[in-house]
Design goal:
The protein is about 20% helix and about 40% strand. The protein is of the alpha+beta class and about 120 residues long. A five-stranded mixed β-sheet has the order 2-1-8-6-7, with no helix packed on it. The chain has a three-stranded antiparallel β-sheet with strand order 3-4-5, covered by helices on one side. Strand 1 (about 30-40) and strand 2 form a beta hairpin. The model is unreliable at about 1-25 (pLDDT under 50).
């Protein structure tokens, strides 16, 4: 009986010593503010300009899908709020980031505080 008690005590002690306490991981609740503008041939669409707070870990495509009625094909935006691209007329959704062509697609782009994104449905020449 004494051996069982010692084994039980030793096992409990080892288990207690081997247990690591989880440190509370504090996830960042910080948000950033970005502005999204949507135009068709240079004209702002209805409800096409918003400034909103977003998670800095979200990709632009996710933000657009949440804030607008967006359709995409293979992660390329094909329609925003019912305004569809027209492949036959060479009209596509393009976007600029802070006044310059974005370096990557919307599905790869994470934004920074104060960024301005301009989506425009326009013909390519």
């Amino acid at each position: 009986m004494k051996k069982w008690f010692l084994l039980l005590f030793a096992g409990a002690t080892l288990t207690a010593c081997g247990t690591t306490t989880e440190t509370d991981t504090v996830e960042s609740t910080d948000t950033i503010e970005v502005t999204l503008n949507v135009t068709v041939e240079g004209e702002l669409i209805e409800e096409g300009s918003i400034t909103t707070e977003v998670d800095p870990n979200e990709f632009l495509l996710e933000i657009m899908q949440r804030e607008f009625d967006v359709e995409d094909e293979n992660k390329f935006i094909t329609s925003i709020n019912g305004h569809e691209q027209d492949v036959a007329n060479n009209e596509y959704w393009l976007f600029d980031l802070n006044g310059e062509m974005a370096p990557v697609g919307a599905h790869e782009l994470k934004l920074s505080d104060g960024d301005v994104v301009d989506f425009n449905l326009a013909g390519l020449e």
